[in-house]
Amino acid sequence: MKKNLGKIDRIIRFILSLILIYLGYFILPNYGIVFSIVSYILAIALIFNALSGYCGLYRLLGISTNRKCDVYN
After folding, report:
1. pLDDT band at 69 (very low <50, low <70, confident <90, very high)
2. 17, 27, 29, 63: which could join 43 in a potential S-S bond, CB 3.0 to 4.6 Å?
């Protein structure tokens, strides 16, 4: 797995994951547990992306925000 996420992209994903965790814990349970669970699942995926520096969707689309790895073979 080559890293295809740049520093700013990783920071944004981590901040979004924290927001989703907050929403899932405090706000969304009022609307139903399903919304809360979906929020947690998305947050976990974003945290994984932020920590690993790899996004599978970016790989499929051939996108890279990492300056060290702009072209895929």
Report:
1. low
2. 17
